[in-house]
Amino acid sequence: MKAETSFDFNISALRVWSLISDLRGFARWHPIYSIAADAELGAEMDVTCCLFKSGRKMTTQVVINRLTKPQLIGWQMGVRGFFTFDERYEIEQIANGVCVHHSIECRGIIGGLVGIMMRKGLLRTMRQQDAAFLALLRRQSRLPGQSNRNRRRPIKPPRPRGAAND
Predict the structure, then answer these.
(1) Which member of 111, 138, 145, 164 lies 3.0 to 4.6 Å from 83 by CB, making a disulfide possible if both were Cys?
(2) Whole-prediction pTM value?
(3) What CA–CA distance (Å, rounded) separates 145 from 9?
(4) Of the candidates 11, 35, 9, which has an alpha carbon nearest to the alpha carbon of residue 24?
(5) How many Å is the Cα radius of gyration of the chain?
(6) H or E element: which one contains 153?
(7) In the predicted model, what is the mean pLDDT of the chain?
(8) What is the per-residue pLDDT across 140-160, written as a single tens digit (0 to 9) for each?
(9) Nearest 5 degrees, angle CA 108-CA 118-CA 62?
């Protein structure tokens, strides 16, 4: 079972990549994950997840299984063959910005069945994650010093005039 969402934003692919690959910074914006490691291909790391609306937290291991700068980052958790949860973000350059594709795939003997049962809730959660990431992108695009478009220039004072009899 695979669930996918996507959204467009007017920002550079490299900027999106720097925010999405900053795994230690996930806790600032991501509503579910807290990760205390750097993004490296093959890295195993602990991820703390909030479970449902109860606020309970669970820590599990994930492996970074996809990492291509500035296009793709993905990780996998679970028991291979039995139940795996594969999540990834793909960044696609478009005419005026990027399109971010977010996908989650449940695999394995139990994974397919669990994925089908959880599909609606999974899509809702993915949309919440995407909205949180979009909010971060909006904040980042408004940081001072990044754009000259709406910046006012100081008015030059008029030159002093000489005396009328000069």
Answers:
(1) 111
(2) 0.77
(3) 20
(4) 35
(5) 23
(6) none
(7) 83
(8) 877 665 555 555 556 666 666
(9) 50
